[in-house]
Amino acid sequence: MSHDTSVSRTIRPVRIELASCLLHGDLAVPARASGLVVFAHGSGSSRFSPDNRFVADTLDRHDLATLLIDLLSEDEEAQDERTGRLRFDLNLLASRLVTIEAWAVGLAELRPLRVGLLGASTGAAAALLAAAQQPHTFHAVVSRSGRPDLAGSALTRVMAPTLLIVGERDTPLVALNQRAMTQLRSEVQLEIVPGATHLFEEPGALEQVANLAAVWFQTHLGG
Question: To the nearest whole percent, how much of the chain has pLDDT over 70?
């Protein structure tokens, strides 16, 4: 299902130089930004994903800055296409998210903003791992069709308020997220989108996901 992403927000490309590689992202900062949301997408997705852009557009309308960034470099993406290994290297992906937050703090326009993480699929596990490693750095987490179970025992160290969103018809994932709820010691909420499957392709489903995420981040990043 396609979504209308024709909004008038200003997106600018950014590059984050690491010791070993270069990461590419797209940053959008509304005039009255109340927080910054960094996207951690799952395997097989990218910052160009229409779904990610649709969610980012919704967050923008709620005065949230967004950074859609690929956690692997172009060379690493090519390597991962062959081996499928890096997409499951959650420690690597989590460390990239920590580095990205440190980069954001270095920008004057982003420095005052609290940072939240929005992870999808395996990216949600990386987001939770990063939140566990830096409990005073990340102030909210949203998991969209996420695999929080892959974060293992790190779930018990997450302090950030966490929203888990799954589709009602994605039965195995519902069970995994319900189990994760019992391990998270932070404020946690599970939202099951009625009639939705894994990718929220049903009419209105992704809109519901985006609005739930926007309200969660506004609540926990604002102020």
Answer: 94
- What are φ and ψ of residue 15, in 5° steps? -130, 135
- Record the tokens describing residue 75, joined without a space: 């060379």
Class of domain 24-221: alpha beta
Count CA atoms within 13 Å of residue 38 on its CB side: 36
pLDDT tens digits for range 6-24: 445 789 999 999 888 999 9
